[in-house]
Amino acid sequence: MLISYPHFPSAEMALNEKPPAARTIQCDHCGHTRTRVGDQPKDWPCEFCILADEALDAFWDKIVEHFPEAKFGDLSPERTRRLQDAAVTAVEEWITNNVLPQESDEGEKRRRAT
């Protein structure tokens, strides 16, 4: 069972308003530390959980495409949780390794600059 989360439209601020204060809280879904901004619900998932849910939706769409005769898509609660946890961990690792700057990237930039 995958959970869909509503999307909040971005609020427009008047020119004299300050942006809402950001608070660091723990994601209720995976335990990662995340930033909560403004009126965002406390139980709102972190970016990793949202991306993992989207990826798992695509994964299950592909499985259903190959097995259209399936009437249900049940997994045990334990397997569902383990799959979700693995997906969140994989998304976090992929972003860390491929998107966020690495120490070796900084060293390479310095070598190129000299």
- Report the biggest beta sheet as strand number plus sense, adding barrel if it closes: 2 strands, antiparallel
Overall strand count: 2
Residue share in helix: 40-55%
* Structural class determined from secondary elements: mainly alpha
**Cα gyration radius (Å):** 19 Å
The secondary-structure element order is EEHHH
Helical region count?
3
Give the rounded overall mean pLDDT: 77
Adjacency order of strands in the biggest sheet: 1-2
The amount of beta strand, in percent, is: 5-15%
Rough shape? extended
What is the rounded distance between the termini?
53 Å
Low-pLDDT residue intervals, each spanning 5 or more residues: 5-11
Multimerization state = single chain
How is this structure best described in words?
The protein has 114 residues and is mainly alpha-helical. It has a domain at 45-103. It has 3 helices and 2 strands; from the N terminus they run ββααα. The chain has helices at 47-66, 77-98, 103-113; strands spanning 22-26, 33-37. The protein has a two-stranded antiparallel sheet. A hairpin with a 6-residue loop joins β1 and β2. α1 crosses α2. It starts with 21 loop residues before the first strand and ends with a helix.
